[in-house]
Specification:
mainly alpha, Cytochrome C Oxidase, Chain A, 16 helices, globular, binds protoporphyrin IX containing FE, binds copper (II) ion, Cyt_c_oxase-like_su1_dom
Length: 481
């Protein structure tokens, strides 16, 4: 790589393939939402769904949504990182290729092989199908993850190499040299701080994931090879927790980079900002213990860590990102359009979604809410009204019609429907959770069904709004070409 100082480029060379990625991501989001609607309608007894199919849809929905969130987050991060360091588009294409190969395996395992062991592939569930699927289907599912994981490692490797080359080391890219008293010369922009932080913790997460994936595959092929279930659970949940969180931490770079276009105020790298990201790198890993609060055979200190870090992990996010967002917007005369409205919605939804997560991170509360609908309630808030809103905001910005400033009537309608439908939908999950309705049950008792029925209605509104967003993005792509 050359040593030349790279000027920020307005339109990275990878723009075309990023646009394609956002289209793929948008279409998959929409399709998976329809799967979600079908599941919720079945739980509300509005339609009949064979439980076997329910668990296949649940598996596809979980893996497909997490995958699309990761893919769209990765596209956003790549796009904006390329404004500051040169990234090789060929690597991105290899990443996308590996990702799609993984998707094919996963879809095949579910809809041809019948795999329905959920996206968390919790050991030894993939091997205990009760006749619903063969070991080969589970292997195909997990192998799909392996390809996606390898793609991501490649992706982060490229980010790491280019950041190290440009900023003279990863510690500088992370801003840690600056944080701990180093000079404030050539401090990286917020996007690079974010990119460096995510690449550190998500690589660690993926490595744990890869280890348990390898062990699970061997176990499926040679059942005599047994894995300690507690270690496997820890590795899987560490990986899953870190991976899904990383999707939002990647997507938020769109806010750092695009908000200044609207407010005329640059998002600055301050010590507070770097400190917050430092805390994220530590907390996002340590807080995963909140997934083990009911595992009585875990050491007691893990419970304490899970609970205490759950409180503190909200601080860098809500205290710094959401608060800074408000400060940057206030008095700036920002003119709202669809992209920025969705990006701001995503940030606020993310912040709000953390609150029910923190509540559930308390041991005393977790005893009651564990494995209830409260859990999908909290993560649908910061994904549906968080990461996904950011992704559609970024996509809308990519195809923005520069001749129009304000929001059209249709934009307003789509936005309101998305927010209203989404808020109602997640509130029904939280209500269900508070009423102790368990998650992941294909069939619900009659006195559980009201929440599911109302939720189906809200979900339908979200699906229609999302359809509108995907269509207007696709039309934008055509208009610009
Ligand atoms: C219209 C939008 C959506 C609908 C109707 C929907 C519906 C559902 C339903 C019914 C469940 C199963 C709940 C249970 O009984 O445990 C579920 C689980 C889940 N959803 Fe969604 N969802 C939507 C959007 C999203 C989005 C945007 C994401 C992520 C980006 C997402 C990720 C997940 C995950 C990870 C699970 C857990 C799967 C599991 O328990 O294995 N969903 N969703
Ligand atoms: Cu978690």
């Amino acid at each position: 790589m050359s040593d030349a100082v790279t000027e920020p480029v307005a339109r990275p060379e990878s723009e075309g393939v990023i646009k394609l990625t956002m289209l793929l991501g948008g279409v998959v989001f929409l399709l998976m939402m329809i799967f979600g609607l079908i599941m919720r309608a079945a739980q509300g007894d509005l339609i009949y769904l064979d439980p076997t199919i329910f668990y296949q849809l649940l598996t596809a929905h979980g893996a497909g949504m997490v995958g699309s969130a990761a893919l769209s987050g990765a596209a956003i991060l790549w796009y904006f990182t390329a404004r500051h360091v040169p990234l090789r588009t060929g690597i991105y294409i290899a990443f996308l290729g590996l990702f799609l190969l993984g998707v094919v395996l996963i879809l095949g395992s579910i809809f041809i092989g019948g795999y329905g062991g959920a996206w968390t592939f919790l050991y030894p569930l993939p091997a205990l199908s009760g006749g619903a699927w063969e070991a080969g289907a589970a292997v195909a599912f997990i192998l799909g993850y392996l390809f996606i994981g390898v793609g991501f490692l490649l992706y982060y490797l490229e980010l790491g190499i280019q950041i190290i080359t440009r900023y003279g080391g990863l510690l500088r890219g992370l801003g840690w040299t600056y944080l701990f008293g180093g000079s404030d010369e050539d401090v990286p922009p917020p996007t690079i701080i974010a990119a460096s932080s995510v690449l550190v913790f998500n690589t660690i997460g993926i490595v744990f994931g890869a280890a348990v994936i390898a062990a699970s595959i061997i176990n499926l092929l040679f059942p005599g090879f047994e894995v300690d279930p507690l270690i496997a659970k820890n590795a899987i949940y560490f990986f899953g927790h870190v991976f899904i969180n990383a999707t939002i931490y990647m997507a938020v770079t769109a806010v750092y980079e695009l908000l200044p276009d609207y407010t005329g105020r640059k998002w600055k790298t301050t010590r507070l900002f770097v400190g917050a990201w430092f805390a994220v790198v530590v907390f996002v890993q340590a807080v995963y213990f909140h997934h083990t609060l009911q595992d009585v055979n875990m050491p007691a200190w893990t419970m304490a860590v899970g609970q205490i870090i759950s409180y503190s992990s909200g601080v860098p996010l809500m205290g710094v990102t959401v608060f800074s967002l408000a400060v940057y917007i206030k008095g700036s005369g920002l003119k709202w359009d669809l992209p920025i409205a969705l990006l701001v919605l995503g940030t606020v939804g993310w912040g709000i979604g953390v609150i029910p997560a923190i509540i559930d991170g308390m041991v005393a509360v977790n005893k009651i809410l564990h494995n209830t609908m409260w859990v999908p309630g909290h993560f649908h808030t910061y994904l549906l009204l968080g990461e996904v809103a950011m992704a559609f905001g970024f996509a809308a910005w990519l195809v923005k019609d520069k001749t129009k400033e304000a929001m059209s009537g249709l934009d307003k309608l789509l936005l309101r429907a998305y927010i209203g439908g989404g808020a109602g939908f997640v509130l029904m999950f939280l209500w269900s959770g508070a009423a102790s309705i368990p998650r992941r049950w294909a069939v619900h008792y009659e006195y559980w069904q009201l929440q599911s029925q109302l939720a189906s209605l809200f979900a339908l509104v979200v699906v229609l709004a999302t359809l509108g967003l995907v269509i207007s993005y696709a039309r934008g792509l055509l208009r610009r070409n």
